[in-house]
Specification:
Length: about 190
């Protein structure tokens, strides 16, 4: 009986090792082991999730942030890891003409999102917009938490980044249609 119990324990231990427990690390981890899960352990993304609106230059901007958990990231060398991601979609309405200039709020698939979080330093969160429909135009901007009002954030630091100029019908990057605000804007939680 004693040998049977030892065998069962050994078998259970062997099966448990072969299944491999996944390593969970915080989002801010720079070098993660292959197969690790970079998880939002501090629940950072919860603050951002939901709808935020702001008006400037007779345009209403609506941003909706969505958290995707355990998204697979595969590297070119074959290694991979999982990561919680904060993505964003948006809508722009011209208030003078009462027309929608841009709207991707109906997307649900991870692959269709064009705005994603690059990381943060303290209360500043850095985002990148990649417009795969228009020359893979890349824009960067920053969102900052308002420490005096938890229902407001500041959109700022709009800047053009790289784009595929060799396969682009536009002569200059500034000519590519862009619906993100190019000026600072206060957004309020809805």
């Amino acid at each position: 009986m004693k040998n049977i119990l030892k065998f069962i324990c050994f078998l259970f231990f062997t099966i448990n090792l072969s299944c491999g427990a996944q390593i969970v690390v915080p989002l801010k981890t720079i070098d993660e082991p292959n197969g690790a899960y970079k998880k939002d352990l501090n629940d950072i993304f919860t603050f951002w999730e939901g709808t935020w609106k702001g008006n400037i230059n007779n345009k209403e901007y609506t941003f909706e942030f969505v958290k995707f958990t355990k998204h697979l990231i595969t590297l070119s060398n074959g290694e991979y890891y999982y990561r919680d991601m904060l993505l964003c979609k948006f809508k722009v309405v011209d208030l003078n003409l009462n027309i929608i200039l841009y709207d991707d709020l109906n997307i649900t698939s991870y692959e269709n999102y064009k705005i994603y979080n690059l990381g943060n330093i303290f209360s500043e969160y850095f985002f990148q917009y990649n417009d795969s429909d228009n020359c893979n135009n890349n824009i960067k901007f920053t969102l900052v938490k308002d420490i005096n009002n938890p229902n407001q954030i500041l959109y700022k630091d709009f800047s053009f980044d790289e784009y595929l100029y060799f396969d682009c019908p536009y002569a200059n990057q500034q000519d590519i249609p862009m619906f993100l605000p190019k000026v600072d804007l206060t957004l309020t939680r809805q």
